[in-house]
Amino acid sequence: MDHRELEAYFHSLDRSFFVDNDMKEYASLDMPLPIGYGQTISQPSLVLEMTKLLAPEKNSRVLEIGTGSGFQTAILAKMSAEVYTVERIEKLMEKAKKRLDSLNFSNIYYKVGDGSIGWQEYAPYDRIMVTAAARILPDNLVSQLKAGGRMVIPVGPPHLQELRLVTKTDNGDIHIKTVEMVRFVELKGKYGWTE
Ligand code: SAM
User: Fold this and answer.
1) Cα gap 61→181, rounded to integer Å
2) Is the CB of 64 under 6 A from ligand 1?
3) Is 153:134 a contact under the CB 8 Å cutoff?
4) Which of the residues in the chain have pLDDT under 70?
5) Residue 193 lies inside a defined structural domain of this protein
6) What digits encode the pLDDT tens for the residues 73-105?
7) Considering the domain boundaries, does residue 78 fall inside one?
8) How many domains, in total, are found in the chain?
């Protein structure tokens, strides 16, 4: 991945475009902000850091769980070949899709549903980015990761989680590294917390 290209695109994105009117004045702050339905747009510095950890390549097919505002989706779509993004709240997905369509992305595929079970239809993926906190490392996501692939996922209880980098070797072995402690909203669903 070209870090300079990533940083240039990241800094060119107007975060206020991804939040509702009442939050626009706070969009330049390096903090999560409410996007409705009890959800948040993530802290921008963490979005950048997690994208660097994921290290998508130009030919990568990326699965993203938790579309939210679409801010992270735009960055992934810019840095890779295709993004498959799953969001459980239909209204958030509708808004995110509208924003991303207006930025002229044609390499993003959208699904409303429980992303904790992944998106089997288009698996395996070179990269998987999870932007909500899982209860445990979801088996389905691990099995939908391609050999040689990378997944970034927060795992742990509400309020504080381990940000994990999961890599799958060419012979299918799984390596897990805890990078730091983070705080994300809950991943709901089968491998997440109860609805
Ligand atoms: N990356 C997003 C952004 O830049 O705006 C922020 C995502 S927000 C922290 C987490 C999102 O995950 C929320 O929109 C929430 O609805 C979604 N979510 C939670 N559980 C989910 C699940 N099982 N499947 C899909 N999306 C889920």
Assistant:
1) 27
2) no
3) yes
4) none
5) no
6) 999 999 999 999 999 999 999 999 999 999 999
7) yes
8) 1
